[in-house]
Amino acid sequence: MAIRSQKAPEDQRTLVDMSWDPITRIIGNLGIYTKIDFSNKEVVECKSTSSLFRGYSVFMRGKDPRDSHFITSRICGICGDNHATCSVYAQNMAYGIKTPPLGEMIVNLGEAAEYMFDHTIFQDNLVFVDFCEQMVKETNPSLLRRAETTEAPRGHIHGYRTIADIMRAFNPFTGAAYREALQMSRLTREMFCLMEGRHVHPSTLYPGGVGTVATPQVFTDYLVRLLRALDFIKKAVPMNDDIFDFFYEAMPGYEEVGRRRVMLGCWGAFQDPDVVDYDYRTMNDWGRSMFVTPGIVLDGQLLTTNLVDINLGIRILLGSSYYDDWEGEETFVTHDPLGNPVDQRHPWNQTTLPRPQKRDLENGNYSWVMSPRWYDSRSGDYLALDTGGGPIARLWTTALAGLVDTGTVKATGHSVQINLPKSAAMPEMQFEWKIPQWSNTIERDRARVYFIAYAAAMAVHFVEQALGEVRAGRTKVFTDFDVPEDGVGCGFHEAVRGVLSHHMVIRDGKIANYHPYPPTPWNASPRDIYGTPGPYEDAVQGMHIFEENGPENFKGIDIMRTVRSFDPCLPCGVHMYLGDGQVIRKVHSPTLGTSVSG
Amino acid sequence: MMKTKAEGGTKTRKGKAAEPIRTGRAMIRPDATAHLKGVREGNTKGHYAHQKGHLPDGRSTAARSTGINPRAHDAIDPRMPNLSPA
């Protein structure tokens, strides 16, 4: 907090425009535009913008509802299965069916493998490029010198003697941790394919069940791979703790980087087959039985774990987005199945009216992303919830709710205990994720590796249960259904990087309205109609800069670490614009043997 | 200009002119939805009961995996779980 109080008076400031556009996704749709005060080492203003229009909500209309999970899976090339799963949940509700227990476990096992795969590849192959030796050498040489002489406290577990050794292991293409993570992502992807047929657009996932043939073989094939992954995870967690603790210790004040008010949302994951019936009227009960508890955390307090409250509080606001307002358009759902009124700004009633226009970062619209908010009826605030990249919100809500207890995972009310069984090279181990003091860049990244362990521990639980079902001869994995003429459905799930909801309205047997809300619209949202900045903007704005480079060769590493801590998918290329008219273009092409840039 | 296949322009391996493929009248536009009302699809209610080897109580027999002498692959003792091959 001391750093924030060192602000210079506004008239004494010299602000430099610094922009990174595109930052994320292989098609490149996220830009970060900042104004930086280099003399005081502070980011004064930040705006996040997206130049990509997707339009799923537009072209889903009129299609057969049974196609929706296949189509919406294509929203993302890395977490498409999360969309398919969420769409299946929404369809199950609309059709009034439930997946048989073994089918539900197969979905859970597939999703657990997906979390392990995606978080590993993102953390070790993308996030840690920002923390690797080559990068730190270029941005904070004094930090690297200190790392060379700092012993890694948990070196006896992961095998790296100093912090600098860990940083070297993160070097892209050559570092040991980097290469091992690539092998691990292959292994976890195989686990996924055993359950859901194909990565990343599942071929065996349907409303009412799965097409996977449940045999002892398929689950033991999964288990063999899981046990190999456990060896990796047991070393990864202590290694992550060492590097992140070092950053706090070596750079006092680093906890302020990317810090924002604790405003986290989690929509829950891993259905409990014994409880879930996909009926909206009992959604609070089966929502709370999920093995990742849904909830909203505000300033460290758990506001709710009710999926119905979460659902009804969602508002899609405009303000800085390239759309026309739909206030006067059709209201599809006036009341939910429990009789509660549904707002016109709720996804069930949204009509997408795109209005392409010139980007105006100063006083106008600047993004294709809308501004999803959660309406807090107690205070009347529209909360700009973030997901913190997914894991921090999932662990935080699960820990506070204290409902999950499977033996392999236990939520205590203030922490989450994760028990991993003995594996080939490592003994039985227990990790405990404790609720951190801050919601900041480091804690978002730290939670990610803990959630990999969480997903693995849950997978151990699910695979044991699934094998129990198979051995008992209960092999039913699908149920048949008819598509109703009219119906509504909503699915709540966790995409790898955070909250995911699908809202569907069926009319005359066809989709009348369909709105998927993945995590990035929440995280990357621009300023809404009330002027509230989105989470990226909020986290970067007012941030102290720890990078040692000046404006000439500024890399913006602290800003990049912050934006990437929200897991905005795959970074591919960065070109950089300096406000004095000089354009520097840096295209990051990952090639073996080159030094890291951008 | 080269003749299209439909116009008999292509030739078989032996050099004879290929017969154009005879097709019926197109009944749907190519971009129409794959699902048509009245067509029974895999999800239709009642299909589970018609699937061979899938029992009403959620268990299954080897008939779900093979149609060739499935009984030989069933459990020896009916009290044992029936783990059919994939």
Can you describe what's shown?
- The complex is a heterodimer of chains A (598) and B (86).
- With 598 residues, chain A is of the alpha+beta class.
- Chain A contains 17 helices and 19 strands.
- Chain A has a single domain, classed as Cytochrome-c3 Hydrogenase, chain B (Orthogonal Bundle).
- Chain A is 35% helix and 17% strand.
- Chain A has a five-stranded antiparallel beta sheet with strand order 3-2-1-18-19. Chain A has a three-stranded antiparallel beta sheet with strand order 6-7-8. In chain A, strands 9-10-11 form a three-stranded antiparallel beta sheet.
- In chain A, helix 5 packs across helix 6 and helix 13 packs across helix 14.
- The longest helix of chain A is centred in the middle third of the chain and has 35 residues.
- The N terminus and C terminus of chain A are likely disordered.
- Chain B has 86 residues and is largely without helices or strands.
- Chain B has a domain of 34 residues.
- Helices cover 5% and strands 0% of the residues of chain B.
- The longest helix of chain B has 4 residues.
- The interface between A and B is medium-sized, with 28 and 24 residues.
Task: Quickly list its features.
heterodimer; A: 598 residues; alpha+beta; 5-stranded antiparallel sheet; 3-stranded antiparallel sheet; 35% helix; disordered N terminus; B: little secondary structure; 1 helix; 5% helix
What is the overall silhouette of chain B?
elongated
Radius of gyration of chain A: 23 Å
Structure summary, number of beta strands of chain B? 0
Strand residue percentage of chain B: under 5%
Q: Roughly how many Å is the radius of gyration of chain B? A: 24 Å
Oligomer state equals heterodimer
Q: Give the domain tally of chain A.
A: 1
CATH topology of chain A: Cytochrome-c3 Hydrogenase, chain B
The top level CATH class name of chain A: Mainly Alpha
Query: Structural class per helix/strand content of chain B?
Result: little secondary structure
How would a crystallographer describe the biggest sheet of chain A?
5 strands, antiparallel
> Biggest interface, which chains?
A-B, 28 and 24 residues
CATH architecture of chain A: Orthogonal Bundle
Helicity of chain A, as a percent range: 25-40%
Q: Write down the overall mean pLDDT of chain B.
A: 78
Can you say what the CATH homologous superfamily of chain A is? Answer: Cytochrome-c3 Hydrogenase, chain B
The number of strands of chain A is 19
Region (Disordered) (chain B): 1-86
Biased composition (Basic and acidic residues) (chain B): 1-10, 32-44
